[in-house]
C-alpha cells in the first residue's frame, strides 16, 4: 500500500478503471447530482471513445461503482468531463482520493495540463479543486441550467500536472 493510500484513501475503498460495462451505474450516479443528467447511452458512447478514460470508486466488496471521474485526453491536455459520487457515499472523504488518483493516471499518460468547468455555487467541488491546485481561468455566465429553471455561471479551472 502506497503512502497516498495510507493517508488519503478511506478504508475499504478502491479506485479502478471503469468502462462501458458500468455505463448504467454511472448514469444513475450522475443523475443523483446533476440537473441535466447524462443517459446510459451517452456514457456508453463516451467510454467507447479513444482518449476518454474513466476511474470508478468501489466501496468494500462492491462490484458496482459508487463514484467516478471521466476525462478526455487530447495530446498533452485533458478535460475532466464529469466527476460524481453516489448520494449515499457523499461526505465521506471519497472525492479527493478519486480525483487525485485520476489526475495521477492522466499524468502517467503524458497529460501536462487539466481543465474543467464547475458551477460557481458548487462549494464542495470548488474546495476540492482548489486543494488539488486548480486555479480559476475563466467564467461563463448563465452556462448551467439549474433544477429550478434558473441559470448559474460556470467557472473554468486548470491545473498543471
TrEMBL record:
Keywords: Acyltransferase, Transferase. It comes from the Bacteria. The keyword Metal-binding does not apply. Pfam families: Acetyltransf_1. Residues 13-161 form the N-acetyltransferase domain. PANTHER family: ACETYLTRANSFERASE, N-ACETYLTRANSFERASE DOMAIN-CONTAINING PROTEIN. This is GNAT family N-acetyltransferase. It comes from Microvirga terricola. The lineage of its organism: Bacteria, Pseudomonadati, Pseudomonadota, Alphaproteobacteria, Hyphomicrobiales.
Amino acid at each position: 500500500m502506497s503512502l497516498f493510500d495510507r493517508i488519503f484513501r478511506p478504508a475499504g475503498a478502491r479506485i479502478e478503471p471503469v468502462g462501458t460495462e458500468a455505463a448504467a451505474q454511472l448514469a444513475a450516479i450522475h443523475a443523483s447530482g446533476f440537473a441535466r443528467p447524462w443517459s446510459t447511452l451517452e456514457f456508453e458512447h463516451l467510454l467507447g471513445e479513444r482518449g476518454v478514460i474513466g476511474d470508478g470508486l468501489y466501496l468494500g466488496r462492491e462490484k458496482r461503482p459508487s463514484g467516478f471521474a471521466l476525462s478526455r485526453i487530447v495530446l498533452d491536455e485533458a478535460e475532466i468531463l464529469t466527476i460524481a459520487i453516489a448520494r449515499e457515499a457523499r461526505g465521506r472523504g471519497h472525492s479527493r482520493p478519486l480525483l487525485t488518483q485520476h489526475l495521477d493516471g492522466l499524468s502517467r499518460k503524458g497529460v501536462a495540463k487539466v481543465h474543467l468547468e464547475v458551477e460557481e455555487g458548487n462549494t464542495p467541488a470548488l474546495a476540492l479543486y482548489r486543494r488539488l491546485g486548480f486555479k480559476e481561468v475563466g467564467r461563463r455566465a448563465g452556462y448551467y441550467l439549474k433544477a429550478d429553471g434558473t441559470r448559474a455561471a460556470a467557472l473554468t479551472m486548470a491545473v498543471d500536472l
